[in-house]
Amino acid sequence: MPPGYTGKVLRVDLAQRRTWTEEPPAGTYRTYLGGRALIAQYLLRELRPGTDPLGPENILVFATGVLTGVPVGGSGRNGVGARSPLTGAFGVSEAGGYFGAELKRAGFDAIVVHGKAASPAYLYVEDGRAEIRDAGHLWGLTTGESQERLHQELGDRAIRTAQIGPAGEKLVRYACVINDLHHAAGRTGMGAVMGSKNLKTIAVRGHKPVEVADPGAVAEMGRWLRDNVDKLARAMRDLGTAGVVTGLDRRSGLPTRHFRQGQFEGAQALSGRTMRDTILVDRGSCFACPVRCKRVVQAQEPFVIDRKYGGPEYETLAALGSLCGVSDLAAVCKAGELCNAYGLDTISTGVSVAFAMEASERGLLSHDDTDGLEPRFGDAGAMVALVERIARRQGLGDLLAEGVARAAARLGPGAQEFALHVKGQEVPMHEPRLKFGLGLGYALSPTGAEHCNNMHDTMFTSEGPGLDEVKPLGILEPVPANDLGPAKVRLYYYYVSWRHLLDSLVFCDFVPLDLDRLTSLVSATTGWDTSLWELLKVGERCHHLARAFNVREGFGPGDDRLPERFFSAFDSGPLAGVAIDPAALGVAKRTFYEMAGWDKNGVPTAGRLAELNLGWVSPLLPPTQ
Amino acid sequence: MPPGYTGKVLRVDLAQRRTWTEEPPAGTYRTYLGGRALIAQYLLRELRPGTDPLGPENILVFATGVLTGVPVGGSGRNGVGARSPLTGAFGVSEAGGYFGAELKRAGFDAIVVHGKAASPAYLYVEDGRAEIRDAGHLWGLTTGESQERLHQELGDRAIRTAQIGPAGEKLVRYACVINDLHHAAGRTGMGAVMGSKNLKTIAVRGHKPVEVADPGAVAEMGRWLRDNVDKLARAMRDLGTAGVVTGLDRRSGLPTRHFRQGQFEGAQALSGRTMRDTILVDRGSCFACPVRCKRVVQAQEPFVIDRKYGGPEYETLAALGSLCGVSDLAAVCKAGELCNAYGLDTISTGVSVAFAMEASERGLLSHDDTDGLEPRFGDAGAMVALVERIARRQGLGDLLAEGVARAAARLGPGAQEFALHVKGQEVPMHEPRLKFGLGLGYALSPTGAEHCNNMHDTMFTSEGPGLDEVKPLGILEPVPANDLGPAKVRLYYYYVSWRHLLDSLVFCDFVPLDLDRLTSLVSATTGWDTSLWELLKVGERCHHLARAFNVREGFGPGDDRLPERFFSAFDSGPLAGVAIDPAALGVAKRTFYEMAGWDKNGVPTAGRLAELNLGWVSPLLPPTQ
Q1: Using the beta-carbon criterion (under 8 Å), do B595 and A613 form an inter-chain contact?
Q2: How many structural domains comprise chain B?
C-alpha cells in the first residue's frame, strides 16, 4: 500500500448504468482492513432495515483486503456480501482463486453494486476503468459456457470472472458466486442477490502489480512459505480437505443420512485417498499459493465430469455423499461439478437433498411435490437429478431451492423438526455432538450455520500444533471437545475474532502463516506499525458489525439456536449416548453475550461498540437492557 | 526463566516466626506475570472480605515480575500490595531501585507476609534462605539510620532494603515502603500495613544472576536501550520528572494552593532547571538502567539535606511546593527528604498539609487541633514542621496522619467538601480540568486517586510520538484533552490495560521500550511465544482483579467519583471557565463499565471474567444485574 492510500472503491449503479470510483475516508482500511468487515460496515451504513434481499435496494459488495494480491500464498481471495436472501441476516462468503488478486491489480479494492439492470448485464473492469455491458447472450448459460464465451469475445483468456450460473438467475436462495469456474463464494445466497440484479458476471483484468510498503519483506515471507510448505501443509496438498473424511468417520463425525448417523459405510469410497488414487487428475491452486489444496477431477462414465470445474472439497463430499447416503464418488463429483456449473452452494444443496430424502422416507412428500422423483437415501441418481432440478427450479427442486427452512414451513410442523438449519442456513458437514463448541458456533454465527468460523473445537481441544498456535492469544490449556463451559466459550470468542480478522484480510486459513507472521505480513504490506492486538480487534469489530446488522433486522436470542437433532444422541458408535444439552448451550450462549459485551437480548452495548471504534453503530440499534 | 519454571514464593508467618517456600501452580506466571496482577490474585484468594487492613489477617505481598532483574533498564522494580488502610480498597504501589532485582537474584519471585510479629522484626533473605530476626534495635529509627545499622551489623553494604520509617511504625495511613532510602512504594499506605505487622525491614542479598531463555536477545535489548537512551530519554535524564513543572504551570496544570489555582508564581523556583542549576549533585538510577531519571540533591542551610535520600520527583515538588503555596525549593526538598526518612508518601502528605492550610484559612481548625501550629499557604516552615508531625503523629499531624477523608470527617461537612481524595486516597499532582480523561481515571482507579495509570490524556491527545506509540493498539486519532466522550473512554480503557500490564511486569514506564520491543523482551526472557494481545489481556485481567477485590469490599458506583472542586472552574488563566461536567463524567463512567464488561453497578460479569481467564473470581462477587 502506498503511504496515504485510502483505497479505491468502484461503485456500480446497474439501474442507471453508471459507474464511478470513490476513495473511502482516511482510516477506513486500517479500521476495517477489507473483506468481511468492510462489507459489514457498507451494509450497516447503506441499507435500510428490512431491505428485500432480492430487491434492487440490496447492495452487493465484492471486497478484497489489504493483503490481497501480495505475492504470498493465501492472498488471492475476495469476499462477497449483501443482506442474505437465505437468512435475511448478514450475508457474506469468501472465495479463493485469482479474482480478488486480479481486481486489485485492476486498481480496485472493492466493488459496490447497486440497483438492478433492466436486462442481463455484465461488468467489465480493466486497469482502473469499468463498463456495464449487455449479457443477454450469456444469460441461461452455465458458468463454464459463459466464461468461455467471454474469453472468446474479449480475446483474453487471462480475464478472471466472478459469475453466477442458472441457479443464481433463478434466485435459488443458496445460489453462489463462482470465481474461475471452481472457487465458490458459496454460502448465504450471494448468487441469488447477483441474479436479482440481472448481473451475470464481473470480468476483471489488471496489469498493475499490487504495491506494498516493504517489497523485500513481503517477498521474503512468500519465500518462507514456499520453503516450508512441504513441512507444514503436505497433507493438504496430497489429499485436500477431503483428507479428513476417514478420520471424522472413525470418530462418528461424518454426517450421514441427514445427521442421523456419524459413520458411513461408504466413507472409504469418498475419502481423499480414494479420490487421489482414482479420478484425481491434478491439484489446483489459488493466486501465488504453493499449498495447492484444490482438487481437479475428471471422469467419463457413467458420469462425464469436466476437469475445468475442479473437484470437490470435503464439504461437498459429505453433503452430497454421506449425508445423502451416497457412496458413489463419481456421482458425488458429478453433483459437485453441477453445483459449480449452475452456481449452487454444495452444502445447502446437499442438505436440501438429504432433507427431501428424509421427508420422502417419512411420507411427507406428495406426488405433486416430487414431480415423480422420490429421493431415497443412497440413491445417487436421484441425488444428481435433484441438484439439477434445484438449479433449474424444476418440480421438487423448486421447493428445495427455497432452502430447508422455507421448504419445511411449507411441508408443515412434522418437517420443521428435522430441517437442519440455523437462521435459515443449512448446517455444514461438521457434527456438533463430536465438538460441542462447534454447536455453539453454529448457534451464534451471524451468517447462520457455518463451519469456517467455528473450528475452534478441532484446533484447541488437545495439546499439539493447534494449541501452540494459539498460545500467543493466552489460550494455554486445551479444553475437551465435549465441554461447553466458560473456557470453551472463551476459545470460541477468540477464534471467532481471529477468523473474522482473516475474513477481513480475506486471507486463507489453509496457508500456514502463524499469528506473528501474519501480523508481520500486514506490516510489511501496509507500512503500518500494527500488532496482533490491533488486528484481532478488527476481527472483533467485524463480528460486532455483523451482529449489529442482524439485531437491526430483528434477530434476537431465539435465533441463536441449534436444530433439535443435535440434542439427542446416536444409538451406536463412538458417540453413542452423546448429545448437546440445550440448557448448557443456553448458558454458554449467555456467557458469550457477556463476553462480547452484549446485553441479555444479544444487543451490543454502546460502551463495547465504542471500545471497538464503532460508536457510529449504537444509534442504529435498540436500547440495551 | 528456565523452561518449566513456575516461580518461587517465600511465605512468611510473622506470628509463628516461620518461613517456607512454595511454587505456584503451573501457568501462574504466564497468567499473571507478577507484580500487581500476582498481588491482586493473592489478595482475592487469601483475604476474607472485610479484613482489617491494619490487623494481622491482612497479608502484605512483595512481588517482582517476569522481567525483574534482567539486564535491561526498567527491570529493577517491585510491587507491594495489601488491603489498603487508607482506602479499604485494593492497595498496591510499585517502587524502583534495586530491591526487586536483588530479591530475584536471591531466588524469590515474591514474598507473602502473614500475621503480626510479637515484637519488632526484620526479615533477612539471602540466596534461597530466609530468616525472621529481631528488630527491636531498629524500631523508631529513620530509614537511613536503620539501613546503616543493618549494613554495619551484617557487614555487607550491598544488601538491599525495603523498609518503613517511623511513619509506618505509627500506622500513618499513607506511610510508604522505602527501597534503599529513596525509592518509594508510595501510595495506598503499604508502610502502615508493614508497621502493623511489626515488620521494620526486608533485607535482601542475592548472588545468582536471573536466568533468561534467550540471553543473547535480552542482552541485545539492553544494548539497544543504552545506545538509544540519549535520543529517547535525554530530557528525563537532564531534568527528571521535575522537567514538567514549568510546562504544566504555563497550561494552568500545576496544582497550586490546594487545587484552587493551576499556576504558581513560584513555579520557576521549583523547576527541574532550577534544581539542576542549584542543589542537584548527582543523577540516580535503578538496576541496569541507563536513563538515570532520579535526582540526588544536597544542601546545608537553612535546611540540611542529606544526599543519601535522593531528591524530589515532580509529584513531591508540586505536593509539598505549589500545592502548599511554597516556592522555597530547599524547603520542599527537605520535606521530601523527611518523607523518605520517615517513610511517608509525598503526595498524600502534601495534600494533607494543603488541606490543613485551607482548613486553617477557613477557620475550621481549633487551637487544640493545631497544637499551636497554624499552617498557612506559603509558610515553608509550617509545611516542613507538619511533615514531621504527621510522621510522628504529633498534634495536628495525628489528625492528618489519618488522611484527608478521615480528617475532614472529624472536622465536619464544611471540611469534607474540600477534602481532595477519591476512595480515601489523596489526589496527585495532575489537574483534571486540564486533562478531563485524567479525572475519569481518578474516579475509576481501583486504588483511589492516582496518576500513574491515568496519563492517557497526556500521551494520546495530540499527534506525535505519544500517538505513534499507541497506533499498534488501533488508536489512530488523537482525542482532545477536554473531551470525555467514548473515544476518550476507549483511550483510557486501553491505557489502563497497558499500565496494569507494566505494573504486572513491574517494568518502568520511563524506559522507552515501545510495545513491540516490550513484547519481544518478555519472549526473550521467558521463552514464551507471546504477543501484545496476550500481554495486554494480562493488563485487563489485573484491572478486573482489582475491581473485583473492591466490589467484594462493598465499593460501588458511588465511590467512582471526583471531588467537587474539579466541577468548578478557575477564575483566570488558560483554564478560566473550564470545569469537568459531572453529568458527562457520569456518562463516561457508565461507558467505561460497559466497555469493561461490568454491569450497571460496576460488577464484572461472569462472561467477561471468563474471557479474562478469571472464572474463579465470579463466585466471589454479587450477582450481576
Answers
A1: no
A2: 3
Residues A115 and A144 in one domain: yes
Q: Is there a contact between B597 and A595 if contact means CB atoms under 8 Å apart?
A: yes
Considering the domain architecture, whether residues B269 and B388 belong to the same structural domain is answered as yes
* Contact at CB, B594 and A607, closer than 8 angstroms: yes
Write down how long chain B is.
Answer: 625
- Kindly tell me if the per-residue pLDDT of A462 is higher than 70: no
Is the domain of B327 the same as that of B459?
Answer: no
pLDDT for the residue numbered B463: 62
The conformation of residue A558, written as its DSSP 8-state character, comes to: G
Q: Residues B469-477: what's their mean pLDDT?
A: 89
How many residue contacts between A and B have a Cβ separation below 8 Å? 131
C-alpha distances out from residue B120 to B123, B149, B184, Å: 10, 15, 21
Q: What pLDDT, on a 0 to 100 scale, did the predictor assign at position A541?
A: 98
My answer on whether A384 and A448 are in the same domain is no
- Cβ-defined contact of A516 to B529 (cutoff 8 Å): yes
Contacts of B594 in chain A (CB under 8 A): 597, 605-608, 610
Q: CATH code at B189? A: 3.60.9.10
Average pLDDT over residues B218-245: 94
Closest listed residue to residue A403, CA positions, set A451, A448, A340, A466:
A448
Query: Could you tell me which chain B residue has the CA closest to the CA of A592?
Result: B607
Q: Is there a domain that residue A232 lies in?
A: no
Task: Find residues 563-622 of chain A whose CB sits inside 8 Å of chain B.
Answer: 590-597, 605-608, 610-611, 613, 615
- CA–centroid distance for B126 within its chain: 27
- Tens-place pLDDT, residues A9-51: 999 999 999 999 999 999 999 999 999 999 999 999 999 999 9
Q: Which residues of B touch A595 (CB under 8 A)?
A: 597, 607-608, 610-611
Q: A476 to chain B, minimum CA–CA distance in Å? A: 8
Q: Is the pLDDT of residue A455 over 90?
A: no
- Per-residue pLDDT of B131-153, as tens digits, reads 999 999 999 999 999 999 999 99
Pair (B195, B247) in one structural domain: no
Q: Which residues in chain A are closer than 8 Å to B31, comparing Cβ atoms? A: 474, 476
B234 assigned to some structural domain:
no
Cα B273 to Cα B235, B255, B400: the distances in Å are 11, 19, 32
Whether the CB of B538 is below 8 Å from some CB of chain A: the reply is: yes
- Domain end: A389, A419, A449, which one? A419
Give residue-wise pLDDT tens across range A278-310.
Answer: 999 999 999 999 999 999 999 998 999 999 999
Of A27, A536, A611, the CB nearest to B595: A611
Q: What are the tens digits of pLDDT across the range A142-164?
A: 999 999 999 999 999 999 999 99
Task: Quote the CA–CA distance of A183 and A163 in Å, as a whole number.
Answer: 11
Chain B residues lying within 8 Å of A31, measured CB to CB: 474, 476
Domain-located, residue A425: no
| More confidently predicted of B455 and B388 | B388
The pTM for the full model equals 0.96
Distance from CA of B29 to the nearest CA of A (A): 12
In-domain check, residue A227 = no
Mean pLDDT of chain A: 96
B380 and B330 together in one domain: yes
* Shortest alpha-carbon distance between residue B71 and chain A (Å): 24
Under a CB-based contact definition with an 8 Å cutoff, are residues B450 and B552 in contact? no
d(CA B295, CA B238) in angstroms, rounded, equals: 9
- pLDDT digit string (tens) for B17-64? 999 999 999 999 999 999 999 999 999 999 999 999 999 999 999 999
Question: Smallest Cβ distance to B490: which of A490, A605, A610?
Answer: A610
Domain that holds residue B541: 436-620
Residue listed under C-alpha cell 523498609: B163
